[in-house]
């Protein structure tokens, strides 16, 4: 459906901009002011990202429309195994962040869905280069009342919903390998739809 990426896998780590069907995905970092601005605008207001993280600017014809990120999979996710089985978590990629703005309108029909499709193709190349793992599947969480329609149009399947607990880290000794202790909020629930999609290789 979309053009094959113009990229040499051997050189992938050094090629910061790759084009898929006119959509350019440009590697950047969370320190990029444009990414920080988008994080502040997004409904989830993320403060940062934990674990593996590959962040891309979403561009078309020289204009930046947004940003999208690939990150570490969630340890426990309801329904995921019904579609993806139980591969190592390192072989699963979470779409941890996706935010685009129409500017004067979107340049293509179903632009957001095309962006996700392009992102999947790019991440399947980059994940093994940066982390040494072959991607077997993707996951993402969509907070209600949003429906996740853009993911459905790209072939993602809704497999469950989270209970809506949220977590933040504060100073102190944690129970895992990350710094800080986890503090869970089990009162102000924010349930999310769970979407997954298997990786595809030509």
Notable characteristics:
alpha+beta, disordered N terminus, two-stranded antiparallel ribbon, single chain, eight-stranded mixed sheet, 10 strands, 4 helices, 202 residues
Short recap of the structure:
The protein has 202 residues and is α+β, with helices and mostly antiparallel strands. The chain has helices at residues 33-41, 80-84, 111-131, 149-152; strands at 17-20, 23-28, 53-60, 63-72, 92-100, 137-143, 157-161, 166-170, 181-185, 192-198.
SSE inventory with pairings:
Elements (H helix, E strand, L loop, with lengths): L16 E4 L2 E6 L4 H9 L11 E8 L2 E10 L7 H5 L7 E9 L10 H21 L5 E7 L5 H4 L4 E5 L4 E5 L10 E5 L6 E7 L4
Parallel strand pairs: 5-6
Antiparallel strand pairs: 1-2, 2-3, 3-4, 4-5, 6-10, 7-10, 8-9
Model description:
The strands form two sheets. An eight-stranded mixed sheet has the order 1-2-3-4-5-6-10-7, sandwiched between helices. A two-stranded antiparallel sheet has the order 8-9. Mean pLDDT is 84; it is low at 1-15. Helix 3 (111-131) links the parallel strand 5 and strand 6. The protein is α+β, with helices and mostly antiparallel strands and 202 residues long. Helices cover 19% and strands 33% of the residues. The chain is globular. It contains four helices and ten strands. It has helices spanning 33-41, 80-84, 111-131, 149-152, and strands spanning 17-20, 23-28, 53-60, 63-72, 92-100, 137-143, 157-161, 166-170, 181-185, 192-198.
């Amino acid at each position: 459906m979309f053009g094959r990426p113009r990229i040499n896998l051997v050189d992938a780590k050094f090629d910061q901009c790759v084009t898929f069907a006119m959509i350019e995905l440009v590697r950047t970092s969370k320190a990029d002011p444009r990414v920080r601005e988008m994080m502040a605008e997004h409904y989830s207001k993320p403060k940062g990202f934990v674990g593996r993280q590959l962040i891309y600017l979403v561009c078309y014809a020289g204009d930046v429309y947004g940003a999208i990120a690939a990150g570490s999979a969630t340890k426990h996710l309801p329904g995921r195994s019904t579609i993806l089985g139980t591969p190592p978590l390192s072989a699963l990629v979470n779409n941890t962040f996706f935010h685009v703005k129409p500017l004067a309108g979107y340049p293509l029909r179903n632009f957001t869905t095309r962006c996700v499709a392009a992102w999947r193709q790019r991440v399947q190349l980059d994940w093994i280069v940066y982390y040494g793992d072959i991607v077997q599947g993707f996951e993402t969480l969509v907070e209600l009342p949003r429906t996740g329609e853009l993911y459905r149009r790209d072939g993602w399947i809704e497999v469950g919903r989270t209970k809506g607990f949220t977590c933040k880290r504060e100073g102190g000794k944690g129970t895992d390998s990350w710094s800080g202790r986890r503090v869970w909020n089990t009162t102000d629930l924010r349930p999310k739809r769970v979407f997954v999609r298997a990786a595809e290789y030509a």
